[in-house]
Design brief:
Elements: E1 2-8, E2 13-19, E3 22-29, E4 40-49, E5 54-58, E6 65-68, H1 74-81, H2 90-99, H3 104-107, E7 113-120, E8 129-131, E9 136-137, E10 141-144, E11 150-152, H4 159-172, E12 178-181, H5 190-213, E13 219-221, H6 226-234, E14 239-244, H7 247-260, E15 268-270, H8 277-280, H9 283-290, E16 294-296, E17 302-307, E18 311-317, H10 327-349, E19 353-358, H11 365-382, E20 387-389, E21 397-402, H12 409-413, H13 429-445, E22 452-457, H14 459-467, H15 470-480, E23 483-488, E24 497-499
Parallel strand pairs: 1-14, 11-12, 14-15, 18-19, 22-23
Antiparallel strand pairs: 1-2, 2-3, 4-5, 4-7, 4-13, 5-6, 7-8, 9-10, 10-12, 16-17, 17-18, 19-21, 20-21, 22-24
Helix pairs in contact: 4-5, 6-7, 10-11, 13-14
Amino acid sequence: MKKIIINVAAWQTRVAILRDGQLQNIYFSSPVSTTLEQSYFKGVVTTILPGIQTAFVDIGQEKAGFLHISEIDRELAIDRMSSTVDLDDAPQQRESHHRQAMDIGKILKEGEHILVQVSKEPVYEKGAKLTTCFTLPGRFIVLMPNIPRIAISKKIEEREERIRLKEILMKNLPEGMGAIIRTTSQNRTEKEIVQDVQYLTDIWQTIMHEYQKAKPQQKIHEDLPLPLRMIRDHLDDDVEEVIVDDKQTQADVYKFVKKIAPEYMYKVKLYSGPQNIFEKYQIDKQIEQALSHKVPLRSGGSLIIETTEAMTVVDVNTGKYIGKANLEDTILKTNLEAAEEVVRQLRLRNIGGLIVIDFIDMASSGNQQKLMRFLEKTLKERDKFQSVVLKVSEFGLVQMTRKRSGKTLLQELTRACSCCHGLGFVKSTQMQCYAILSEIREKLQKMRGTKHIEITFNPTIFDYITTIEYNAILAFEKELGLKITLMSNPEMPVGEFHIK
């Protein structure tokens, strides 16, 4: 069973999803940081690059968002491309536009205003990814107000249920709108789904009204506050409790649940214990573990997770586990446990993009297939984000992709080290000392004529020079005809020095 734990402080709100006491997801929000994903803006087209079929749109953020032609809904594109045709020939020319390739230079113009939605947060040096294929997430459906198409979650497998849900949407969606039917809609009544449709269409009407009177670059609509958003996305029959440690937030959550899912009102509880709620459920400890590149497995094996800007690589090790049967059974057991933990870590760390998993090599093709079926099944049941998994490669690697959404846990909670600048290591004392000696020599050659100088180092460098490389200092004195006094200062950074 799952628990939703909500911790509220003046400086930060945190929401944790636990399954049997184990952290599955963690989310953060702060008054000083804003979440752009799912927000709507009245953007201004600043630059159009036909060569890469991309437009840059100013939405009032530090970096302009980028809108690729694949993120412009087809009807808008065709209307824009056919808006200049001769009225007498409009039907024929409009039909030709349906067949021809899209050209962003004919769809958008620099300086014009356009309604856009942020589909992905800014990452590293990239601005926000924008779209005009709008979506509004609800409890049972995701409304697509300008895309008249109905899609159904693959997790709903029964054919009769898929047909029933599709018929409900076809009957109740406004003309020109579409929807994605979420897994949570399974076995829900028509009344419940129609209420969700009405709730989302009302929001869309408000967005369109606000767009007309909004100023350029203005944010028009943003998603629900974090606690309510998590309730909307995660509250289902599998949730045992929703525990909140703030009275006002608990009242807001209770009111929201009463509106969208009154059958779950009894699950919303207020925590008033003396201990911090995240400490009580050992959530802080599990967050710290999720920042480590090594993840222990129950069997004694481990995962090594390394993330770059291009991809994430996961290596599976058997560690101390030797098993009780033959080697192949030991390896399969470790790989199955690793596959389950990989899925949890991808969710917990919010890792997306290209992922390569190096499972322990298995000689049996039957065991390989068993592992792949288990991995795909676990992803389908436990992870709400779309993923694609390829078969085991000739090198024994499993390649997969997972949809990106927002910042990773590392980006959310850490920054690059001021010593190693994100490399994960620093130069050895020997190499730092050699670099400093080279720099000192250059500076001393510019100070010819000086009779006496003092050089101050960090104690680590001072000890290394005075015990191992002092001959270099004597060589400086002889070459330049001066006297050098070495000083130690613990406040001096390791890689720096000061000449007086």
